[in-house]
Design a protein that fits this description.
This protein is 45% helix and 12% strand. It has 410 residues and is of the alpha/beta class. The chain folds into 2 domains: 2-103; 152-409, Aminopeptidase. The protein has an 8-stranded mixed sheet with strand order 2-3-10-9-11-6-4-5. The chain has a 3-stranded antiparallel sheet with strand order 1-7-8. Helix 1 (2-60) runs antiparallel to helix 2 and helix 8 crosses helix 9. It starts with a helix and ends with a helix.
């Protein structure tokens, strides 16, 4: 009896040991598989975050110093593109068979597509962006007609004989190389400007239509109590109620008050991709010109950040704190065809000469550059930069009251 009991006890111990080993193996295997899946998910999440980061970096960039019409890319952009390609390559290495199959099918479907042909997904993306733009336009136009308490606000036009004083804190000296009838010009080209090149007397401009658009639609300003916003990037936002597009709304309102016919286009040209902004805005304006003839075409910007993000060029006109304004005019110095650059420069001089008499200090010196900036489209095309990153949105909106009066007066 004793021997039998001992044998049964040994069998029981063996059974318990085997059960313990099996449970331990199951726990080990499950934890191993969990870590493997977690690692894959974690890698994908990091890839997604990195790609999202690069999109934001593109939105954060400022006006390039190179000629955007040439399609050249700065060296740091090339490095970022290489790194982005490497990340995409890593993502392709960790996707599962099902995802790879979907990609393969998509590639086959697009294999016969010609260069420049838009895919259905791209068309869908453009429609979403267009829808978002129109929604923001509707919201912006409805809000701009009302005060904070909901009452409709009567538009007050600019008055003559207002005391004008430049009030910029820590001002940067206005460098210029040429002065014509009081208008200062910073000539960054190799052209030797003659009085004939600058004289606007023979300029014949059709002002029946004015086009306003934004190559860098997402450019924004320092947040204020009245216009507080959450930036999408560094002094950038996709919300048109707080970007330079809002300044365009204000200019449009005032010009219409002077009975101009104004087309204000608020298409995103620098979002989600900053590179190629000028190519996209060129297409936008070219399409508008197919149905609407216009000599005056304004690409409205705010000045770039540079090394001094707090810079806020400001002028006080009467009781209004206004952001200073600056013309940027392109030429054919970049070897691109541009027969209208002299007339564009003359138009800017005509406007600024009048501004210097009515509101001295409102304008900074005109900058003349080799880049074309799409200004070959008409004989009164220009970039107008309103304020800088240190300015508040309301200061830039105030400036439009006076800019519109000057355009009307000339």
């Amino acid at each position: 009896m004793f021997n039998v009991a001992v044998i049964r006890l040994k069998d029981l111990i063996k059974f318990i040991f085997l059960i313990t080993v099996v449970i331990a193996l199951m726990i080990f295997c499950s934890r191993f598989l969990y870590k493997k899946n977690f690692k894959k998910i974690n890698i994908r999440q990091k890839i997604s975050n990195n790609i999202s980061g690069y999109v934001k970096q593109a939105v954060n960039k400022e006006l390039p110093k190179i000629d955007n019409d040439t399609g050249k890319v700065e060296e740091n952009e090339i490095k970022q593109n290489k790194l982005l390609n490497a990340i995409i390559g890593l993502e392709l290495g960790v996707i599962n068979a099902k995802e790879k199959s979907v990609d393969d099918n998509t590639e086959k479907n697009n294999a016969g597509k010609e260069v420049g042909q838009i895919t259905d997904s791209e068309k869908k993306s453009e429609k979403v962006t267009e829808k978002k733009t129109k929604e923001n336009e509707n919201n912006s136009s409805s809000e701009q007609e009302k005060t904070d308490d909901g009452a409709k606000k009567e538009l007050e036009l600019a008055k003559d004989d207002q005391k004008t004083e430049v009030t910029t804190k820590n001002p940067i000296a206005d460098a210029y190389t040429k002065k014509y009838k009081g208008v200062k010009i910073k000539n960054e080209t190799s052209y030797d400007l003659t009085d004939e090149d600058l004289n606007p007397e023979k300029l014949n401009i059709d002002k029946s239509n004015i086009i306003i658009f934004h190559t860098h639609t997402c450019e924004s300003y320092t947040s204020s109590k009245k216009y507080a916003y959450t930036p999408t990037g560094n002094f950038r936002t996709t919300d048109l109620k707080y970007s330079v597009a809002k300044v365009g709304d204000e200019l449009t309102k005032y010009l219409k008050k002077y009975n101009f016919n104004v087309i204000h286009n608020k298409t995103y040209h620098d979002y989600p991709s900053y590179n190629g902004s000028y190519s996209r805005s060129l297409a936008t304006v070219s399409n508008i010109l197919k149905n609407t003839k216009a000599d005056i075409i304004i690409d409205l910007h705010r000045d770039a950040i540079g090394s001094y993000s707090g810079y806020a060029p400001t002028v006080k006109i009467g009781d209004d704190e206004c952001a200073q304004i600056m013309f940027v005019i392109g030429t054919d110095g970049g070897k691109l065809k541009h027969p209208n650059w002299k007339s564009n420069l003359q138009f800017a001089i005509k406007v600024q000469e009048k501004a210097n008499k009515e509101y001295p200090g409102l304008f900074k010196p005109i900058i003349l550059r080799n880049s074309r900036y799409n200004q070959h489209l008409s004989k009164a095309a220009c970039i107008i930069e309103v304020g800088s990153t240190g300015n508040k949105l309301e200061q830039c909106m105030n400036s439009m009251k006076y800019l519109s009066k000057i355009i009307n007066d000339i």
